[in-house]
Amino acid sequence: MSAKESNEAIESQPVTKPAGAGYIRLIILLLASLFLISVLIEVFLAGMASLVNATHWKDHTTFVHFFEMLPVGIFVLSFVAKIGGAVRWLSLTLVGFIGLQYITVNLVDTIPMLAAMHPVFAIVLFWLSIVMVKKSFVVWRHGLHHHRT
């Protein structure tokens, strides 16, 4: 058997799904959806603080702690469910942008021009969250292991 035939034989074999993978994929979808909703709430709280009453800044700075670890959970669960590709790496990207949010907000006194990126990164977080929900839905619905689109 040639190397090409051997590779084709391996690729034609079905991939074994881990037990409960469908449930884990559903949990990933739910976590991604919860993160998206949380980002919207966080933006709303910033709007309340900016436009209604500055006392809402405390709500804005506190609320993030309730959802900031969701992408880490998605990342870990992607290994359990053997999901690679977009879902796994988007979760890490979300973690990175949350980190950028902490960095930029703390630059207000030293580098205000860079601190002004804070709301821009919030928009990016929102957009990436939408993409994450869509990718998670496809992976859950179709049971894909290494969804790359």
From TrEMBL:
It comes from the Bacteria. The lineage of its organism: Bacteria, Bacillati, Bacillota, Bacilli, Bacillales. This is Uncharacterized protein. InterPro entries: DUF6220 (IPR046192). It comes from Paenibacillus baekrokdamisoli.
